[in-house]
């Protein structure tokens, strides 16, 4: 890779990182609007993770990504002094706490969207007027039901209401929302497994043991995990949830960069050991 192409590659890589950071705002904007409907009386402290799980999750992942970038590419081996290593590991540990906390939030959100009640006596959404009701267009997306649109949302004659929330949806829409909530949970769980494997890779590489069976096992496991994440991204794409699809796609690209960093780091270590052995001879 010549200097010019290397510079372009790094520019593209950091552009992806910036776009991922911008996604924090996109998720916050989306969840802020949803929270106004989901928590009409205000958000209690314990409900913050349920209301803003994607925002918190994405922010923690962006910080974690930068930690991996520093450790696998930016910092040379001689820079890994005890304070630097302690700082990096501490920041990553904090990120993992928030990521696991966000995973709990996704599970809470799944439990919430599954908990619905039949909307008795309502066969037409226009019958809900003049009350302040919302239509659940998809997961975390609610639109006010008004006189000019009440007949456009659904042709169904039966609806369900999310418990303790002035939002309704028909049976088909509810199934799609629950499926999307499940995809959120599964996607978050798979990403947790990805970073567990990547953490093991980095630790093995630091001790020059990322070879042979360990390397093959890691590659096989990560192929299965990244494939599952790709399926989730494709599902979001087909369901029209562009923000989730775009975010999932960018994260896959970002972690390809981290994998390339680890590969380059490994090759440099092998070359260094080979050169050292030549000198010894």
Descriptive account of the structure:
- With 281 residues, this protein is of the alpha+beta class.
- 70% of the residues lie in helices and 6% in strands.
- It is built from seven helices and five strands; from the N terminus they run ααααβββββααα.
- It has a five-stranded mixed sheet with strand order 1-4-5-2-3.
- β2 and β3 form a beta hairpin.
- It is elongated and about 85 Å long.
- The relative contact order is 0.11.
In short:
By secondary structure, this protein is an alpha+beta fold. The chain is built from 7 helices and 5 strands, in the order H-H-H-H-E-E-E-E-E-H-H-H. It folds into 2 domains: 3-115 and 173-280; 116-172, no CATH class.
Task: Give me some keywords for this one.
alpha+beta, 281 residues, 2 domains, 6% strand
Write out the strand line-up for the largest beta sheet, numbering strands in chain order: 1-4-5-2-3
Based on helices, strands and strand pairing, what is the structural class? alpha+beta
Major sheet description: 5 strands, mixed
The helix/strand order is HHHHEEEEEHHH
In total, the number of strands is 5
Number of helices: 7
Mean pLDDT: 87
**Which residue ranges are poorly predicted, with pLDDT under 50 across at least 5 consecutive positions?**
none
The portion of residues assigned to helices is over 70%
Radius of gyration equals 23 Å
In terms of DSSP E residues, the strand content is 5-15%
Give the total of domains.
2
Shape: elongated
End-to-end separation: 31 Å
